[in-house]
Design brief:
There is one protein chain. This protein has about 450 residues and is an alpha/beta fold. Helix content is about 35%, strand content about 15%. The strands form three sheets. Strands 4-10-9-8-7-5-6 form a seven-stranded mixed β-sheet, sandwiched between helices. Strand 7, helix 6 (about 235-250) and strand 8 (about 250-255) form a beta-alpha-beta unit. The two termini are about 35 Å apart.
């Protein structure tokens, strides 16, 4: 709460997390199990439990949580209905290497909710679901090239993990960005057929398709760019991409790993009114349990069903994750999706409150996004519209704000993305706004600011 006292970073506040991390570093590579969790300041936190809208660290500190497992925890931590459904399933076994009734129930539920979902297949992670989508696009079209966009993340596999967050010196031409690998060790031949374009620029797509449209199997994008600033598409952009794909026989793929079942019960495609050929769902689908889903038109999906396109996985449709997904979606569906009204109302109040405080303090903060997921920026009068305008914001100041919030007991993602859950309350929002005021007051004066590239951490992990 804002009691008028300045923030004092007490390093002892994180002493047990630091001890755990030092010990883990002797056994786990980097002390963590995902590179997206590396580099957290002051140290990667260790948690002992979560409940509702709060996380509790091993240091004995309670945090209002807007990271929410980097998006999946849409019903809050340890939601009663989901946990009970999973507990009831455990005595029935966890993995059959065969089909079960809950798998059918979930398939029926997803196909009833999602516009493009004439058929579905279930997996365990968004990264792997992207791979089967790309394979289907190539098989369906007998073409090899894939178009992706700067700043969009579609998993960590070699063929698609390019130009996600490149350094400015590796951008390339604004109309034809470089295809830049995100990691050492990536096989250049794997991404040789991946073309990178700027997003929200319809002219760039039209020009590319006029040159090599007959070689392109699929265009994949986040319909709302949640991995880079929660940027929404310009009016008419998605509609025109849909038209171009239909005209040229290209498979349109929406990566809804974040937006699916978070921005609306029928996903971003339902919210925005544009239906892709294929879509990938994951994070919010099972309320924190690991699952992914590829949904799409029967003409494509039946290539899997006929055995022409290979898709497998030992843990696909495991009982626990499927039961958790059913329980999560049923809760979100209840009372005509009232959960979304609640999240969006609270989220919009939080967004408006943050902007109001920032304007009052002349903090230079800009808030952009939707009630259930939004982003905070510094150093830009207008919200970014693509990756390059996102890079022009003051990300060092954002990092300072994230750290100050953490010291005030509010945890958001390290890149400045906020997720809402149905467990958040009006009181949580009021407490958060008081903490945000204190955090903004703790920021260095404007003449002490320094711009630079931030550490991109766990919010894009899959």
């Amino acid at each position: 709460m804002d009691d008028g006292t300045p923030i004092q970073r007490d390093n002892d506040r994180y002493h047990r997390s630091r001890e755990y991390f030092n010990d883990c570093s002797r056994h786990l590579a980097g002390g963590v199990s995902s590179n997206f969790r590396m580099g957290a300041k002051p140290v990667p936190l260790f948690f002992e439990r979560g409940h509702g809208s709060h996380l509790y660290s091993v240091d004995g500190v309670s945090y209002l949580d807007y990271a929410l497992g980097m998006g999946p925890v849409i019903l809050g931590h340890a939601p009663g209905g989901v946990i009970e459904a999973v507990q009831d399933s455990l005595l029935k076994g966890q993995l059959y290497a065969g089909q079960h009734e809950a798998e059918l129930r979930l398939a029926r539920l997803v196909t009833s909710l999602v516009a493009c979902a004439e058929r579905v297949r279930f997996g365990c992670s968004g990264s792997e679901a992207v791979q089967i989508a790309l394979r289907l696009a190539r098989a369906h079209t007998s073409r090899s090239k894939i178009v992706k966009f700067e700043g969009h993340y579609h998993g960590w596999f070699d063929n698609i993990c390019v130009s996600v967050h490149p350094e400015p010196e590796r951008f390339g031409d604004v109309h034809r960005p470089c295809t830049t690998p995100e990691s050492e060790g990536q096989d250049p031949s794997a991404y040789a057929g991946t073309l990178v374009l700027p997003w929200n620029d319809i002219a760039a797509i039209e020009q590319t398709l006029s040159i090599c449209g007959g070689e392109i199997a699929g265009i994949i994008m986040e319909p709302i760019l949640c991995n880079t600033g929660v940027i929404t598409p310009k009016p008419g952009y998605l509609e025109r991409v849909r038209e171009l794909c239909t005209e040229q026989g290209i498979v349109l793929i929406f990566d809804e790993v974040i937006t699916g079942f978070r921005v609306a019960l029928n996903g971003a495609q339902g919210l925005l009114g544009v239906t892709p050929d294929l879509a990938i769902f994951a994070k919010a689908m099972a309320g924190g349990f690991p699952i992914s889903c590829l949904a799409g038109r029967a003409a494509l999906m039946d290539l899997i069903g006929k055995g022409l396109v290979m898709h497998g996985g030992t843990y696909n449709s495991n009982v626990v994750s499927v039961v958790a997904a059913i329980a999560t979606l049923e809760q979100l569906k209840n009372e005509d999706g009232a959960a979304y009204d609640q999240m969006n109302r609270l989220g919009r109040n939080l967004m408006d409150g943050l902007q109001r405080i920032a304007d009052e303090l002349d903090a230079g903060l800009v808030v952009q996004g939707l009630g259930s997921v939004f982003h905070t920026y510094f150093g830009s009068e207008q919200p970014p519209v693509d990756y390059r305008t996102y890079c022009a914001t003051d990300r060092t100041r954002l990092s300072q704000f994230v750290d100050a919030l953490l010291d005030c007991g509010v945890r958001i993602t390290t890149r400045g993305t906020w997720f809402l859950s149905t467990a958040h309350t009006k009181a949580d929002v009021e407490e958060t706004l008081a903490a945000a005021r204190k955090a903004m007051l703790a920021l260095p004066k404007s003449d002490d600011r320094h711009t630079g590239r931030p550490t991109i951490a766990g919010e894009i992990s899959r």
